[in-house]
Design a protein that fits this description.
The complex is a heterodimer. Chain A is α/β, with parallel strands linked by helices. Chain A is 39% helix and 16% strand. Chain A is built from 11 helices and 10 strands. In chain A, strands 1-2-3-4-7-8-9-10 form an 8-stranded parallel barrel, surrounded by 7 helices. Chain A has a two-stranded antiparallel ribbon with strand order 5-6. In chain A, helix 6 packs across helix 7 and helix 9 packs antiparallel against helix 10. Chain B is of the alpha/beta class. In chain B, strands 3-2-4-5 form a 4-stranded parallel sheet, with helices on both faces. Chain B has a 3-stranded antiparallel sheet with strand order 1-6-7. In chain B, strand 4, helix 5 and strand 5 form a beta-alpha-beta unit. Chain B is elongated, with a radius of gyration of 22 Å. Classes of the chains: A alpha/beta, B alpha/beta. At the A-B interface, helix 5 and helix 6 of A face helix 7 of B.
């Protein structure tokens, strides 16, 4: 996969992955409203500091501006989005339709997810669709792109959507021993890049990557390690207790607790930078994905401190 | 077994408060087994509704009768005689039984006393667990006998998602992650390769009102 040629329609993220560069992506959460200026403001913090920007899709099942619309706004701003797409809210008709629309709008990257269950959000008893799961969605996208047909019927698509297909990975969710095999399934289905759940315990993650490399998966896709800077001790505790697949070493809690007043966030950023440095040394890792939720303005300093600037041009 | 539970009394009352001659029909089938609508429940409910009505200043003549199974015409035939001078029926059968009553006695309003909630296992008296969503294309052969449509909150076929922690579902820690259970079961049976293969999307054939006509059926 590395040092391979990207097609002429490929976006920056795919080109950099294929040329062997260490890529940087970050996350942007759309607003809970229809004001495009908020999207522009958040995006302006990230422009020039990352290679592509993930747009979340009604994350935590809370209604926000749609990921396709937000991604289209980014394209208009000259910023490359990774459009996240969950299977919770759309059946295969809507999913394929959105894929055609995304391609038409100049969106080059799609991340396929099942999505947080609707119980978590502000419409807990709405109907969760789940017509297909994330791996089936990856497979559908690959068929649409490579065969130019709708998979269910074999009917030709008028122009095949040329997309860089991504999926998520949760190395520390149960059953832990099965996770590399599930990752392999995603690659077999057609996933080309992977963004992982937030990594805090690098030692445990490296052990996971050893098993991934044993299966040869790292050679078939680009694995981008997820990082999330901890703003406070409270946030660390919340994440550990409430977010699946998060494992935070005890030492981080101590660092955050002992930070002088008001400086816990700075300590969190320092921890994040240390993790990024270690990920850069980890065999099989092609980049990092910074999830600074509602903290997008601090992404530039993280990228800078880690020596990842300037971002390469393609 | 079909499992149902009683609606709130105030909701049943608000459906029936304007009627004076009410027949409460129980079912000795599924809803009796799950203690929601059998003969004993009819007796108890009749009493409770009567008291509730008095408390709210209305009154009605309440009758109760329990049939073998509300979902079969042959068993509700004996109700015909008993429906003279009845102006409303309250069914303590499942949704299917309630609809058959409504069809048979289509000049009398029929109201459900129960919410039918699922097809499941009666673990013990008083403890019932959903296991089947009648998807129409049973996947149990691939998943070691654990239903991914019903037992996985997201109905995933290539699970688990990233939300499983300590073998529990992200939606509720009291709910086991179905895919963790499937994994363990298949491992135990040396069939783990079922989880290496990609399962294709379901063709959901259970969306239109179903009808099953068995081979050899002749209309009576």
């Amino acid at each position: 996969m590395k040092h391979s040629t990207a097609g002429e329609n490929s976006g920056k993220l795919q080109r950099l992955c294929r040329s062997g560069d260490f890529v940087v992506t970050a996350e942007l959460g759309p607003p809970k409203g229809n004001n495009p200026l908020i999207v522009e403001k958040k995006a302006s913090y990230l422009a020039g500091f990352v290679d592509a920007v993930n747009v979340t899709d009604n994350q935590t099942a809370i209604v926000r501006m749609s990921s396709i619309a937000t991604a289209a706004l980014l394209v208009r701003m000259g910023i490359e989005p990774v459009m996240q797409m969950v299977t919770r809210d759309r059946n295969r008709i809507a999913a394929q339709s959105d894929i055609l629309g995304a391609a038409a709008l100049g969106i080059k990257n799609v991340l396929c997810l099942s999505g947080d269950h609707q119980m978590f959000g502000n419409h807990p008893f709405c109907k969760g669709v789940y017509d297909i799961d994330s791996i089936q969605l990856v497979s559908i996208l690959r068929t649409m792109r490579d065969e130019g047909v709708f998979p269910d019927t074999g009917e030709k698509i008028d122009g095949a959507p040329d997309l860089f297909i991504g999926a998520a990975d949760a190395p520390f969710s149960d059953p832990v021993e099965y996770r590399p095999y599930r990752l392999r399934k995603k690659i077999d289905a057609g996933a080309q890049f992977i963004q992982t759940q937030c990594i805090y315990d690098v030692k445990a993650f490296r052990e996971y990557m050893r098993r991934v490399r044993d299966l040869g998966i790292h050679e078939k896709c680009f694995i981008i390690g997820g990082v999330m800077p901890l703003k406070s001790l409270a946030m660390a505790r919340y994440m550990q207790q409430n977010v699946p697949g998060i494992v935070i070493p005890e030492s981080f809690f101590r660092c955050l607790a002992s930070a002088p007043g008001g400086k816990a966030g700075d300590e969190g950023i320092k921890i994040c930078c240390d993790i990024i440095s270690e990920l850069r040394e980890t065999d099989g890792i092609s980049g990092i994905h910074v999830m600074a939720v509602e903290w997008e303005h601090r992404v530039p300093e993280i990228i800078d401190k880690c020596g990842l600037l300037p971002r390469p041009l393609v | 077994m079909i499992i149902a539970r009683e609606k709130k009394l105030e909701d049943i009352y608000s459906l029936t408060s304007s009627y004076q001659k009410i027949m409460i029909v129980g079912c000795a089938g599924c809803t009796a087994v799950c203690l929601a609508g059998g003969h004993q429940e009819v007796v108890r409910f009749k009493e409770e509704l009567s008291l509730y009505m008095k408390k709210h200043g209305t009154e009605a003549a309440l009758k109760g009768y329990t049939v073998e199974r509300q979902c079969e015409p042959i068993f509700i035939f004996e109700l015909v005689e008993r429906m003279r001078n009845i102006d409303a029926i309250v069914s303590m059968g499942c949704g299917a039984g309630t609809q058959l009553l409504a069809e048979k006695f289509d000049d009398i309003p029929v109201f459900p006393a129960l919410d039918t909630i699922f097809v499941g296992i009666s673990r013990e008296t008083g403890l019932y667990e959903e296991n089947c969503r009648s998807c129409g294309d049973c996947q149990l052969g691939y998943t070691g006998g654990i239903c991914p449509v019903t037992r996985c909150a997201k109905g995933i076929f290539n699970g688990p998602c990233g939300g499983s922690t300590n073998g529990r579902c992200e939606v509720d820690p009291d709910i086991p992650c179905a895919w963790c259970q499937i994994y363990e079961r298949l491992k135990k049976q040396n069939r783990i390769e079922n989880m290496y293969a990609i399962r294709r999307p379901m063709q959901w054939k259970n969306q239109n009102p179903g009808i099953l006509i068995q081979k050899g059926f002749k209309k009576q």
